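User: I'm putting together a teaching handout on how sequence relates to shape, and I'd like one worked example. Could you take RNA polymerase sigma-70 factor from Zobellia barbeyronii, show the sequence you're using, and then write out its predicted structure as tokens right after it?

Assistant: Happy to. First the sequence, then the structure tokens directly below it.
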Amino acid sequence: MKMITEDIRLLEGMKEDDNSSFKAVYEKYSKVLFIYAHNIIKDKVICEDIIQEVFISLWAKRKTSNISSLKPYLFQAVKFQIFNHFRNNKFSTEDLTRLNIIDVSMNVSDQIEYSELNQIIRDQVAKLPKRCRHIFVLSRYDHKSNKEIAEELEISVQAVKNQISKALAFLRNNLQLEEAVIISLILLH
């Protein structure tokens, strides 16, 4: 709860053009966001650009955005930038191999389509069994580690991994091919 309160204070400071609040947000989240992006895109320069874009956008929208939870917002923004990176065909053969994508065209043109796809994913996630869905949401949307989830729910880390695997298999089986490819990009952790 302390973290959420601190984030709210920092967001309010940014709305009042407080550069030190922005710097504090950057220092708090930039490294973890970079690591997250780098786990998907193994190119340091591209990941640095993605993180820079996310923070430029955060500052540019500081007075108009209604961010209720900063950490999930920032992770979602990074996911969107990664999505744009792949959509714009700036991926290497290594990226394709690592993601097990062979000759699949992602013809998604704008954020509206991304939002629609995200809604499709959320609809499918809602169909998961209650416990599986809860664990999946904690992992992929709240960005909690398997260990954090296991401690919170008082279960083993292996049980968390099993539920996440079960959820991903369900989503892959219930989405069209292009959606399944894109979900693997969006939900990689």
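A couple of points you could highlight for students: Residues 105-186 form a domain with the Arc Repressor Mutant, subunit A fold (CATH 1.10.10.10). Residues 19-40 form the longest helix (22 residues).
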